[in-house]
Amino acid sequence: MRMLTLRLKGNEALAAGILTGGWMLLVAVPLILLGFDLADHIRSLNALIRDLQVDGLPPPPDWLANLPMIGSWLVEAWQTVNEEGTAFFVRIRPYLGQVGNWLLVHSARIGTGILELALSLVLVFFFYRDGLQLAAFVRGVLQRLIGEQAADHYLKLIAGTIQRVVNGVIGTAAAQGSLALIGLLIAGVPGALMLGLLTFALSLIPVGPPMVWIPATGWLAWKGEYGYAVFLGIWGMFVISGVDNVLKPYLISRGGNLPVVVVLLGVFGGILAFGFMGLFLGPTLLAVTYSLLGDWVIKGTPKVVPSTTSLSFPAQKESASE
């Protein structure tokens, strides 16, 4: 923002508009592509269901029978579903309505999240354009309330917390989603863009990304693509998950002594309480509360001064003299 404002000879509104437009493209284009990708997969799923109703299931793969303990049971279940055919789909038809209602509810939640995201992108323009004036106003209010030194301390704490969330949480999620997309494209997994965005969303959970690349690896093995399955397994374990194990703690720990668990708990609780905006509000509120409690405990702890004299017991001396 500062560099662009200098290039535009101090036109802050134009610089803020250019940056906001860039963010809108960066967010809107993947969402549009995801919508087209989901539509294609829904059509493919409908075609698959029609084919299964007419032709039945394909023969079970050879490796399914070789699974220990459950292989024979899975083969029998496969053949039972294949023999029943249309009756099976008639039996599950009542549950399809429940699945449709569940998808409708979660689609409404996704729409609410997209609306919050659009609102945050609109607010980005004003934060870019009026950010310095807003920061000066907040600093002045805090200095009147809690003093100059404390105001500077908590402003740095808030700024550092937001920066650590952006770099450590969102940055790591973007890196994992991009690496997952690259690996899935190389392996030829269908719906790579959708799975990459799903990896980005699930990276907020410590065990989230393996929920994407492990099933994709199993699907490649089921299709007989053993080379790509081995590649994706190694790529997922050492590259996608390795980023989460190495990059996230490093980025979150930079710029302060706030525990990593406080930031992560703030992220989870903030998303549950406030939605998308809670990704930033939750860690900030928790960091400020944690710092306030720490200062309060330190100020309330009495200082212990070591004594150079020997301990005496007046009550015992009095009783001894008596």
UniProtKB/TrEMBL annotation:
Entry keywords, A to Z: Cell membrane, Membrane, Transmembrane, Transmembrane helix, Transport
Membrane-protein topology: Multi-pass membrane protein
Keyword Kinase: no
One Gene Ontology cellular component: plasma membrane
Location of the protein in the cell: Cell membrane
Keyword ATP-binding included in the entry's annotation: no
Membrane-spanning parts: 12-36, 110-128, 179-206, 226-247, 259-281
InterPro entries tied to this protein: AI-2E-like
Cleaved signal peptide residues: none
Family the UniProt entry places it in: Belongs to the autoinducer-2 exporter (AI-2E) (TC 2.A.86) family.
Identification of the protein by name: Putative PurR-regulated permease PerM
Naturally occurring in which organism (per UniProt): Azomonas macrocytogenes
